[in-house]
Design goal:
The complex is a heterodimer of chains A (168) and B (403). In chain A, strands 2-3-1-4 form a 4-stranded antiparallel beta sheet, with helices on one face. Chain A has helices spanning 14-26, 41-47, 54-80, 92-118, 150-159, and strands at 4-11, 30-35, 139-146, 163-167. The radius of gyration of chain A is 25 Å and the shape is rod-shaped. With 168 residues, chain A is α+β, with helices and mostly antiparallel strands. In chain A, helix 1 (14-26) packs parallel to helix 2 (41-47). In chain A, 50% of the residues lie in helices and 16% in strands. With 403 residues, chain B is mostly helical. In chain B, helix 1 packs antiparallel against helix 15, helix 2 (40-70) crosses helix 9 (220-247) and helix 9 runs antiparallel to helix 10 (255-286). Classes of the chains: A alpha+beta (168), B mainly alpha (403).
Chain lengths: 168, 403
């Protein structure tokens, strides 16, 4: 099986990137990813990414945290049965503080977990296809093709106005 | 524009104005009828609730524009200009406040009570003087901000009415460049924000908290102005949704705008509930009888406890879970319904705060048809004011590319 060639087109203008992404998706080349130094709505829209599941992780984490926070407060209160200022042992109003804090904590953990699992981090595979200029003023569009298509892909990026970097 | 379209627009405009006028007439009739009935205090209670609610909506909505300018925010787009239209209610709100003086005997239960030293603060001349001055300062700052904000938006070539003409003349007398205008907007906007916090605290203490003169909550003022911004945002979303549904893409209000302001509305829903909770928490732990009785009457004893739960569900629990969904925040119709329900919920919340003090020993929640009709009158006044502003200054909703 012939090895794939990975080629990155480095752009300075996000409009060119949008145009290159759209053209790449319609071509026979394999679009892989975009590395960019700043967030861009235009590029995000052009990528047409599927809706993220991270929000559901956050929600589930928050609900679990809420239950755990209230549960912890109720459990510890029942263990000691100390009546303070005539308040009930299981006092819902002050327990809201613990429940709320635990909700936030659970939601944060859920969010981090969702982020790690959904983006499959840590990912070392693509580090070798990274150009440091993408942390400066360039936006890198990475694409792959068969070895025989290499010249065609280079030509494609040239026509889109990009500098070329070929990864061996 | 063809002649036919122009005619249709004029007919629609006049019809809408008539609807608002009829609403106001119904409200006035219900209020006058209430005054001549056996229980004029009920009519004054509805009047006070509506004055507080609709004034807070106008003040909170204008605050949105000032905050957007001060923070140099650009996401709000046409919403910022739209929120300025609520300033048209300021003069009406001021007159409505002055009318409250006539009902002082019915709306201040502490008038004939022994106040144990608090009469220095709680006396009619001082209360009305300070509140009149406070509201006047707030509205002057609001109009000062608006005067400068409009200068960046109005098109001098549009047909001019009397009001537009006089504003244009004032601008021509003091010609200023855009940078200078923006600087002035920052000054007036900053003053408005400061006055908003202070004056709404004062109004909250004087017209709501003082109804139970032996009860104190130092956070009540902040709770009152957070609530005003919350419902101001709600009213702004309703107005934006109406304009979006009527004008479609032409309005320039996009799904993203609804999503962003929906997030802000959601945030203030949480903040409102938080300010309620932090007061409750302190009272709960302190366990001082003169503080706890206020909460017990409103949240634990019939008939008010049911109303308390209704308010909590309608203004917090419901919006919280519904607005978690991103999709709902982008849909004008859904947002309009949610915001309307929240505003009705805040109306009920005012009833919850004022009702037990004004209707002693009530066996049932004092709500009747006349309360609804008086509220419709206030709704008509607000719609009339905002509609008038948008008719005179239609460019306020437009956003220039440079912005």
């Amino acid at each position: 099986m012939p090895r794939e060639r990975h080629i990155m087109g480095l752009f300075r203008d996000e409009h060119q990137v949008v145009s290159a992404i759209n053209a790449l998706k319609e071509s026979s080349y394999k679009f892989i990813r975009v590395n960019l130094p700043f967030p861009s709505h235009k590029i995000m829209d052009a990528l047409k990414l599927k809706k993220s599941w991270v929000g559901w992780f956050t929600l589930c984490g928050g609900i679990l945290g809420f239950i755990a926070g209230f549960g912890l407060a109720i459990y510890t209160a029942i263990q000691w049965n100390l009546i303070v200022s005539g308040k009930p042992i299981v006092a819902i109003i002050p327990f809201v503080v613990v429940g709320f804090e635990a909700t936030i904590l659970g939601a944060v953990f859920g969010n981090v977990l969702g982020l790690l699992t959904q983006t499959r981090l840590p990912s070392y595979r693509w580090l070798r296809y990274y150009d440091p200029r993408c942390s400066g003023e360039h936006i890198g569009v990475l694409a792959a093709c068969e070895a025989r298509q290499e010249d065609g892909l280079k030509d494609f990026f040239h026509k889109q106005g990009a500098e070329i970097r070929v990864f061996e | 524009m063809t002649e036919d379209t122009a005619k249709t627009m004029v007919i629609k405009k006049s019809r809408t104005s008539w609807v608002f006028f009829v609403l106001v007439a119904i409200g006035v009739a219900a209020f006058v009828f209430g005054l001549t009935s056996q229980h004029p205090e009920r009519a004054w209670q509805a009047y006070l609730i509506n004055f507080l609610l609709w004034s807070a909506i106008a003040q909170g909505a204008v605050l949105f524009s000032a905050v957007m300018h001060m923070t140099n925010a650009r996401w709000s787009g046409p919403l910022s200009g739209l929120s300025e239209s609520f300033a048209a209610f300021f003069p009406i709100s001021y007159i409505l406040f002055l009318v409250l003086f006539l009902g002082r005997a019915h709306i201040f239960p502490w008038l004939h009570e022994d106040l144990h030293g608090k009469e220095v603060w709680l006396n009619i001349p001082f209360l009305f003087t300070r509140d009149c001055i406070g509201l006047l300062i707030l509205y002057i700052f609001g109009f000062g901000y608006l005067f400068n904000a409009l200068q960046l938006k109005l098109d001098p070539n549009q047909p001019r009415g009397k009001l537009r003409q006089s504003i244009f003349e004032a601008w021509q007398r003091n010609h200023r460049n855009p940078e200078e205008i923006k600087r002035r907007m920052t000054v007036w906007g900053g003053l408005y924000i400061l006055a908003f916090a202070l004056v709404l605290c004062l109004i909250g203490f004087d017209l709501v908290m003082s109804m139970d003169p032996h009860w104190i909550s130092t956070l009540f003022g902040a709770y009152h102005f957070v609530k005003a911004f919350f419902i101001g945002l709600g009213a702004l979303i309703i107005l934006a949704a109406i304009i979006r549904l009527k004008q479609g893409e032409m309005s320039g209000i996009k799904a993203n705008h609804f999503h962003d302001i929906g997030k802000l509305f959601f945030g203030f829903c949480l903040l409102w509930a938080d300010f309620f909770y932090v007061q409750l928490m302190v009272i709960y732990y302190g366990n001082i009888p003169e503080e706890t009785h206020y909460v017990i009457v409103r949240t634990m004893l019939a008939p008010w406890n049911k109303l308390a739960w209704t308010v909590f569900i309608v203004c917090f629990v419901g919006p919280f879970f519904i607005l978690l969904r991103q999709g709902i925040k982008t849909k004008p119709v859904f947002m309009m319904i949610i915001c309307s329900v929240v505003i009705i919920g805040i109306w009920l919340e005012h009833l919850l705060l004022l009702g037990p003090a004004l209707s002693h020993d009530a066996q049932a929640i004092p709500l009747s048809l006349s309360d609804g009709l008086i509220s419709l009158g206030f709704l008509g006044l607000m719609a009339f004011a905002v509609g008038y502003f948008l008719r005179i200054f239609p460019e306020t909703t437009l956003v220039k590319e440079s912005n």
